[in-house]
Design brief:
The protein is of the alpha/beta class. The chain has one domain: Purple Acid Phosphatase, chain A, domain 2 (4-Layer Sandwich), CATH 3.60.21. Helices cover 28% and strands 24% of the residues. The chain is built from eight helices and 14 strands. It has a six-stranded mixed sheet. Strands 4-5-7-9-11-10 form a six-stranded mixed sheet, covered by helices on one side. A hairpin with a 2-residue loop joins strand 10 and strand 11. It binds fe (ii) ion (FE2). The site of fe (ii) ion has 6 residues, from helix 3. The site of fe (ii) ion (FE2) has 6 residues, from helix 3.
């Protein structure tokens, strides 16, 4: 199964209009590259603005991708809390987060993208995360990795946490006998970087400390243990704006956080994943500006014996 993975679209018609064009180009490129399924791992909107969700829906509809069997989506912190847009917003941001109704925002997100949650396997009817989708060789499992706001533990509303109830339901899904032979792929917004390894590791340690405190996924160890026990092969995520592949405990992690919102004018890329029972490959693929149909492909790591 060929999967195209993009993330962190950060649609914002006022401040980041270029991101919409880049995302359209990437989605077209995904289809031209033979992708059978599109994964978008959160932060669709830069400022939790519902009109950004509608823009993405319209794009997906145009490409006949607003269908559960064609596209999977998970929610990012910006889809719930937004982000500061101006210098003035930075000061007001904590109180904005404090007054955000987390559960209402998650419900709104689900409602906007309800077509993508149709026919999903969910241990609890009323909870949309975790959800699973079964394909011939592959099982996709989506999580809500966003922590609720906390003045001390989540002061910028950008840290992650997967609730105990989600972990319990995740275990139910991952340990089902009927999914034993499937290639299990987790979709989440937050990254699993080891402590002190961040996207800016070569820059100031002060920045590392800030990023470690404001971008981390709490409870990673428990999740990693569960992934290992249930033979998860691959985790697709975003959050940190870079294109990166790494391994933890033998599990492959792919970050497409830099696919669109990357400070590079007109440059966009996606990860193309080929997932089969005995082999997974992941490579970065970039549509050229001149010919949108021709891919410039940079091979990273090929082949992983399961
Ligand atoms: Fe994020």
């Amino acid at each position: 199964m060929r999967i195209a993975h993009i993330s962190d679209l950060h649609f914002n018609t006022k401040f980041k209009s270029g991101n919409i064009l880049k995302a359209k180009r990437l989605i077209k490129h995904a289809l031209n590259s033979g992708a059978e399924h599109l994964v978008i791992s959160g932060d669709i909107s830069d400022n939790s603005d519902e009109k950004d969700f509608i823009i993405l829906k319209e794009i997906l509809k145009r490409f006949d991708l607003l269908r559960s069997d064609k596209t999977s989506i998970v929610i990012g912190n910006h889809d719930i809390f937004g982000g500061p847009q101006t210098a003035q917003d930075v000061l007001n941001f904590p109180s904005k987060c404090m007054n955000t109704n987390y559960h209402q925002k998650v419900a709104k997100f689900i409602d906007h993208f309800k077509e993508l949650f149709e026919n999903t396997i969910r241990p609890h009817d009323e909870l949309f995360f975790p959800f699973a989708k079964e394909f011939k060789d592959v099982l996709l499992v989506g999580l809500n990795s966003n922590a609720e706001y906390s003045r001390l533990k989540n002061p910028f509303a950008s840290n992650g946490h997967v609730s105990k109830i989600q972990r319990q339901f995740l275990k139910v899904i991952l340990t089902k006998n009927e999914f034993k032979e499937k290639v299990k792929i987790i979709l989440t917004h937050h990254h699993f970087y080891p402590k002190n390894v961040t996207s800016h590791s070569s820059e100031s340690t002060m920045w590392n400390r800030i990023e470690n405190y404001t971008m981390k996924l709490r409870g990673k160890k428990k999740l990693l243990k569960l992934f290992l026990e249930s033979n998860v092969k691959l985790v697709l995520h975003g959050h940190s704006h870079e294109m990166k592949e790494y391994f933890r405990e033998g599990i492959r992690f792919v970050n497409s956080g830099g696919s669109v919102d990357n400070n590079l004018k007109d440059e966009a890329s996606l990860f193309l994943i080929d997932a089969f029972p005995f082999e997974i490959t992941a490579e970065i693929s970039t549509p050229t500006l001149e010919s949108k149909n021709i891919a410039t492909q940079e091979k990273l790591i090929v082949s992983l014996a399961s």
